Amino acid sequence: MNPHGMTPRQLKLMVFVQTYTAEHGYSPSCREIAAGIGVKAASNVIDIIKALEERGLCRRLPRRSRSLALTETGHLTAVRFAARSVSRAPIAGAA
Known about the structure:
Layout: H1 8-24, H2 30-37, H3 42-54, E1 58-59, E2 69-70, H4 72-88
Antiparallel strand pairs: 1-2
């Protein structure tokens, strides 16, 4: 777990949802999230989403597909994590 008490998969899911939503204008399906974060079963994605909902980092509308959205706190957490991941990436061509 990271300093925020979140698992790596929870963070990957949040960054994936944020990026996908920005690119497509709507949230991804559970199967798309599973493929995007490297999880085999969509049911595992649902468990991760439920944990994030309990923390107040995302929300879903009942009985609506593609209704997953990050809350303001979730959005800020995803942005910070994505920025930190990019800043730690090796620079191409650097020796």
